[in-house]
Write a structure and sequence with these properties.
Shape: globular
Number of strands: 8
Mean pLDDT: 92
CATH architecture of the largest domain: Alpha-Beta Barrel
Bound molecules: flavin-adenine dinucleotide
Helix content: 40-55%
Strand content: 5-15%
Strand order of the largest sheet: 1-2-3-4-5-6-7-8
Radius of gyration: 19 Å
Low-confidence stretches: none
Structural class: alpha/beta
Largest sheet: 8 strands, parallel, barrel
Distance between the termini: 31 Å
Length: 308
């Protein structure tokens, strides 16, 4: 119930205006967000890089319905790529297609992605397309596949809670794609997504095993194992050890502020780990999705409200 409530609130304009207005909620959101400015994002990235962690930077924003705003998002990301290069950060970028104009016009969005990928290629980094709600799955995969015919530095995400993911992941792995596998963070109906967490977990492990095969890896397929769940991580490590998969053929990914000790432990064990670092002023829906994943986080906020 709490999950549904927070996912509803993530899209509610009135709640956004109410929550983002308060200094205290901004402070609470800082648990999951590096800051509102590019400088804060750079500082957070440097600190993580110094600990051996790679980074994916997300300049927060989504559901953009205005061309000028989508073009502004492209400019912001181009500036971010310049800064990644200037400071030699070990970082790539993560973007949402609805931030780059997918709701306005698909070909406009595709052109915006091309601009980012060209710049990213110039500075030897990559662009990852986040996966949003199921309304966008088909279009996201269509755009991803179109971009892959022109660029080799693009990846996208599949969500284990969708029934279709088993087929999608097999097809994309056979195409040698770069895929981030996560459980899925949106509210989806039972006719397209597993309602039970135990089934999502089972499907996560199944999809991971289907992806990480010698045949797929030989084609250049690369998996980003995005989860904080110790059971998923253990299942991944078991599969990786049993199949003698090299540490440079996959990476673990976790969100900024969640399980930092596990991130470092995996680095100590010799695995690649990338932290997803969001920043910017449009943090509200991202913050609500993090609360939906773990309603216990609400206590953290309440504690903050009463702390001086
Ligand atoms: C790098 C990365 C990128 C992602 N990109 C996308 C995307 O593009 N599209 C999408 O739909 N989803 C994305 N997600 C979110 C994902 O779908 C899940 O909603 C989220 O990761 C929680 O699932 P879990 O695998 O951590 O397992 P869960 O079973 O939800 O959690 C396992 C354990 O992890 C810890 N944990 C999990 N979430 C939180 C939290 N919010 N606060 C504190 N502790 C927590 C808790 O200890 C919990 O018991 C991404 C996740 C990661 C890590």
């Amino acid at each position: 119930m709490m999950r549904s409530l927070f996912l509803y609130l993530s899209g509610a304009g009135w709640a956004r205006a109410f929550v983002t207005h308060f200094f205290l909620s901004r402070r609470a959101a800082r648990r999951f967000i590096a800051g509102e400015t590019l400088t804060e994002a750079v500082d957070a990235t440097r600190a993580l890089n110094e600990k051996g962690l790679m980074v994916s930077l997300d300049h927060l924003g989504e559901s953009v319905r205005d061309r000028a705003m989508a073009l502004q998002a492209v400019d912001d990301y181009l500036e971010l790529l310049d800064v990644i290069h200037q400071y030699q950060l070990d970082a790539n970028i993560s973007v949402k297609l609805t931030q780059l104009g997918l709701d306005i016009d698909e070909s406009f969005c595709l052109d915006n992605m091309r601009r980012l990928l060209e710049k990213a290629k110039e500075i030897n980094t990559s662009v990852n397309i986040d996966m949003e709600s199921s309304k966008y799955t088909e279009a996201t995969l269509r755009i991803f596949r179109a971009l892959r015919t022109e660029f080799d530095n693009v990846g996208t995400v599949l969500q284990a809670y969708l029934y279709r993911t088993e087929a999608d992941i097999q097809a994309l792995a056979a195409e040698g794609a770069t895929i981030r596998l996560c459980k899925g963070a949106y509210k989806e109906p039972a006719d397209i997504a597993f309602p039970e967490k135990s089934d999502v977990d089972k499907n996560y492990i199944k999809c991971l095993q289907l992806f990480l095969t010698p045949e797929n890896l030989a084609k250049g397929a690369y998996l980003k194992i995005a989860t904080h769940d110790p059971k998923m991580i253990e299942a991944a490590l078991t599969h990786i050890r049993e199949h003698h998969i090299n540490a440079d053929q996959f990476e673990f990914q976790m969100l900024y502020g969640i399980r930092p000790e596990t991130q470092l432990e995996l680095v100590r064990q010799g695995y690649r780990v990338r932290v997803y670092v969001p920043y910017g002023t449009a943090w509200y829906p991202y913050f609500m999705r993090r609360l939906a994943e773990r309603p216990a986080n609400v206590w953290f906020i309440l504690k903050n409200l009463f702390r001086r």
